Amino acid sequence: MNIEAVSVRHRTPASIAKELRFEDVRLTYGAVEAVRGITLEVRPGEVMCLLGQSGCGKTSLLRLAAGIEAPQFGRILVDGQEMAGPDIFVPPEQRGIGLVFQDYALFPHLTNLQNVMFGLSGLRRSEAVQEALRALQRVDLESAAQAYPHELSGGQQQRVALARALAPRPGILLLDEPFSGLDRRLRDQVRAETLAVLRDARATCMIVT
Ligand SMILES: Nc1ncnc2c1ncn2[C@@H]1O[C@H](COP(=O)(O)OP(=O)(O)OP(=O)(O)O)[C@@H](O)[C@H]1O
Ligand SMILES: [Mg+2]
To answer: Cα(34) to centroid of ligand 1, in Å?
Structure first.
């Protein structure tokens, strides 16, 4: 068995980190108060870890930031611009936010390269291929570009998912328990690798672990 570590040899232009701010944000599902008046600021380039017991609202907070949910109260701002508030709701695809969610699996019928290209629909095909290859280089999996997800280990698949999120160079990256599907030994390794890639990408990160 050959377990390789991520070395970030190929440096690509990094993201421009953005500031993410929650102002007294509330989200309820029916009678359940998932997020109760959270005020929080993640500074540009900062990696913030969200900890807390099951059901305390960590995933809900990321869904709010991503635009998958709309708050019932409060405001969400990116670089001072309102993404969600009483009179405004910017849809997910216009927020410039990358997501790595546990249940946001790779498409099994697409190659790893095609999976990473999925987030680059705005580019010409040749450019998209080039950018996707760069993102795969970043997680040290360029050699697996033509393979399919099922041909990779769990940790490698997780790195492809990270490459897919990084490819459009988001200013903000949200990761929800990205390591939970891995066994313990692999988890520590992939976590260390991911943090190294995140530091190099210089995006603002919120990560639930
Ligand atoms: N789609 C939904 N419909 C109804 N209630 C929901 C929904 N999603 C979450 N909830 C409820 O909102 C609360 C917060 O859930 P959330 O998923 O944000 O917690 P979490 O901190 O991510 O938990 P975990 O650590 O288990 O992932 C919980 O009480 C949950 O049952
Ligand atoms: Mg959760």
So the answer is: 6
